[in-house]
Amino acid sequence: MTHAQIHKSFNRATASLCPNLTGTSYCRFYCSRVNLALEFNKCHSVITVERRFRQRYNQEPPNANNIRRWHRMFEETGCLCKGKTSGRPRVSAENVERIRRRYERSPRKSTREGCRQLQMPQKTVKRVLRKRLKMKPYVIQLVQQLEQEDYSKRMNYATFMQESMEDETMADRLIFSDESTFHISGKVNRYN
Q1: What is the spatial distance between Cα 78 and Cα 80, in angstroms, rounded to a whole number?
Q2: pTM of the shown model
């Protein structure tokens, strides 16, 4: 049987069971799940199923809990499609608005503090901030803007230091109290 014939027979067989899965793009994905569920039904051992999956597909098998869940779904419904969702959003519009107002007033507030004040899970607050409100955490970095006169000062200092290094005692007299990295782009990283 050719690969195209397998796809056709798969589509005919699954169209009656599961109308969501017609089309060749789902075949490999769906067939491997069905095979895992059927294999688990035969041997009732996740380890054996994982071993056979590695041998057959030459890749890491899915999580053991997923294999058990797919087996249970296949036994109960005869299909491995996701069920219908309620259509209800994960977070209500009212809660999104509460989070937006809270972080508009004080945007530097941590999500831990915000979730405590809003009495919501931290994961919910983080998800709303990132996905719905498009707010991302960032660290403010100090950068120094170089003026036109700074270039000549830097050059003068560099030549002075180069000439001073010829004096062997100069290195012993230098003291560095703060460390900074100056990048060619003009960005400055400071370490204290």
Answers
A1: 7
A2: 0.38
Are the C-beta atoms of residues 103 and 114 closer than 8 Å to each other?
Answer: yes
| Secondary structure letter of residue 96 according to DSSP | H
Domain that holds residue 11: 3-77
> In this structure, how many other beta carbons lie within 10 angstroms of the beta carbon of residue 142?
9
Residue 11 counted as domain residue: yes
pLDDT at 148 over 60: yes
pLDDT in tens, 172-188: 887 777 667 778 877 77
Q: Are residues 121 and 66 in the same domain?
A: no
Is 144 among the domain residues? no
Q: Which residues partner with 182 through β-bridges?
A: 188
What pLDDT, in 10s, does the model give residues 49-84?
Answer: 999 888 888 888 888 998 898 888 888 887 777 777
Q: By CB neighbour count within 10 A (0-12 exposed, 13-18 middle, 19+ buried), where does 114 fall?
A: buried
Q: Considering the domain boundaries, does residue 32 fall inside one?
A: yes
Asked if residue 21 and residue 56 are part of one domain, the reply reads: yes
Least Cα distance to 70 among 53, 90, 88, 87 occurs for 53
* 59 vs 50: CA distance, rounded Å: 10
In the chain, the number of structural domains is 2
79 token code pair: 């299909």
Residues 12 and 59 in one domain: yes
Asked if 64 and 53 touch (Cβ cutoff 8 Å), the reply is no
Tell me: pLDDT of 126 over 90: yes
Q: In terms of domains, do 49 and 111 share one?
A: no
